[in-house]
Amino acid sequence: MPDNSALILRLLILATFGGLLHLLLRRIIPAFAPVVVGRNRDDLRFCLKPPGASTASSPRPSSATPFPPRANGELILLVDDEASVRNLLTTVLLNHGYEVIIARDGAEGVAVFSEHKDRVALIITDIFMPKNNGRSFVDLIRPLRPDIRVLFMSGLEANGSGRDPGRKSSSDPFLLKPFKPAALLNTIHQVLHPDSTKA
Length: 199
What we know:
Elements: H1 2-28, E1 36-39, E2 46-49, E3 75-79, H2 83-95, E4 99-103, H3 106-116, E5 120-126, H4 134-141, E6 149-154, E7 174-176, H5 181-192
Parallel strand pairs: 3-4, 3-5, 5-6, 6-7
Antiparallel strand pairs: 1-2, 2-4
Organism: Oleiharenicola lentus
InterPro entries: Bact_response_regulator, CheY-like_superfamily, Sig_transdc_resp-reg_receiver
Keywords: Membrane, Phosphoprotein, Transmembrane, Transmembrane helix
C-alpha cells in the first residue's frame, strides 16, 4: 500500500505540473487554427480556405511596413513551381483572410483558372517556370478574363535594377524575391483596392 500511495502522489504531481505547463505554453505560444484543405478532382490542385474561427484579427509582428486591412475572402490563384514558395505564400495569404487556389506551373494554372475564372480576384505568378512561364500563362488567361489582375514575381532582376525582368511595357505590378509578407500584402491590397491607396 505505501508503494501505491507514492505512485498516486507522483501521478498527481505530474498531472498538476502538466496542466500548469500547458497553460503556460498557451500563453506564450499563440494557438494556430488548422487550415481546412479541400481536394479538387485531382491530386495536384488544392483549394485552401481558412476556417471560420480564423477570421478574427490575429496579433501581427511589428514591422517598419504596416500591414493593410484584413482581406474579405477574395480568391487568389497562386502559381509557382517551387513547393516551398507556394506553401509559405499560401500561409501568409490564408492568415490574412484570402482564399487561395494553387498551381505548379503555367499549364496547370490555365486549367485551375478555367475552373474558377468567375471567382478569381487576382493571379500571383512567378515569371520563370516550366510548361508555360508566367508571361505566356497570363497571355493565355487574358482572353478568358481581360479584366483579371495579375501580380508577377521573380527571383531574377534585370541589370540589378530591381525592376521586372519581363516585358518593359508591362503595366502589371512586380515583386522581386525575396520579399517580406507586409510588402506582398500591401501590393495585393493596392492592386485589388486602388482607390483606397490614393491620398
